[in-house]
Amino acid sequence: MTSETVMEIGEDALIGRVTDGLWTGDGVVIGPGDDCAVVKASGSDWWNLLKTDAVVEGVHFLQETDSEKVGWKAMARVVSDIGAMGGAPLFALVTLMVPKTCEVAYVEGLYAGLKRCAERFGVSVVGGETTSGPVVMISVALTGRVRPRFCVRRDGAKAGDAIYVTGRLGGSIRGHHLTFEPRAEQGRWLAENFKPHAMMDLSDGLAKDLPRMGRVSGGLGCVLDEERLPVNEGCSVDEALNDGEDYELLLAVSPRRQMRLEEAWRERFPELELTCIGKFFKGTDKMPLEKSSGGWDHFSS
């Protein structure tokens, strides 16, 4: 009998299997499954946020990609996750794997991008590890913090909530995935001023991440207004739904707060769009993207 492969079951199912039954101590507030893990900080009014991510040559970037952009991306991805929980990033550890024949100038470029992003978002790089391997890989482990009352999970959406996204979607393959600006400041502002019922960053594409939010929020469905999707210039609706690596915020907000949110957003972030694209309802029969094959899955064909 042939054993099933990770490609056959997909990323979400694989994560569910390997994390099922993991032991967690009393201080764990949120374990696997959200943008970050959340743990209590002993003797502190803050919760700690923990996140790790990796970018791999041939998967997340090409060999000929400007190494400074690769470094920026490696740090920006984890900063984005901290922001999606309503937190502030603090300390990072960086693990670097490169072939033995890799030019020193390339590595210096990687770290120039890492440092530029770290300085931009107040991250202290406090250590790491280097090793050799067949391709370039950078893994960044990042800690952050958030006050308990401002921590926003991805599983709190409610029936009737309005669905919003920041910025515009689509076109990551044209270079956006290397130069995007993490919405860390916007995530904290949203958490502290409007406390969305749910929030996450769009790393795998709206077609994959929106059903995820509905599924973990008690099995909600949604109505999506494709005509209101904020699509990047030159992109199709299909690309906006499926390209992935947008790194915008996806959030669920009480309809009673919509008008005040939109007014306050325009005043605070006049250069960045915030668009209502739909609404959550009870029942997954109203999840139009659930059966879509789009979005990013690390183990898909």
From TrEMBL:
Q: Does the keyword Cytoplasm apply?
A: no
The protein depicted here goes by the name Thiamine-monophosphate kinase
Q: What Pfam families does the annotation carry?
A: AIRS (PF00586)
Give one GO term, molecular function aspect: ATP binding
Q: Which residues bind Mg(2+) 4?
A: D35, D81
Instruction: Quote the function comment for this protein.
Output: Catalyzes the ATP-dependent phosphorylation of thiamine-monophosphate (TMP) to form thiamine-pyrophosphate (TPP), the active form of vitamin B1.
Q: Name one GO biological process term.
A: thiamine diphosphate biosynthetic process
> Which Gene3D superfamilies does the UniProt record give?
PurM-like C-terminal domain, PurM-like, N-terminal domain
Pathway assigned to this chain's UniProt record: Cofactor biosynthesis; thiamine diphosphate biosynthesis; thiamine diphosphate from thiamine phosphate: step 1/1
Which residues does the annotation say bind substrate?
Answer: H60, E245, W296
Listed binding positions for Mg(2+) 2 are D53, D81
- Can you tell which superkingdom this protein's organism belongs to? Bacteria
Q: Which reaction is the catalytic activity of this chain?
A: thiamine phosphate + ATP = thiamine diphosphate + ADP
Source organism of the structure: Phragmitibacter flavus
**Which positions are annotated as binding Mg(2+) 5?**
D204
Per UniProt, the enzyme's principal EC class comes to: transferase
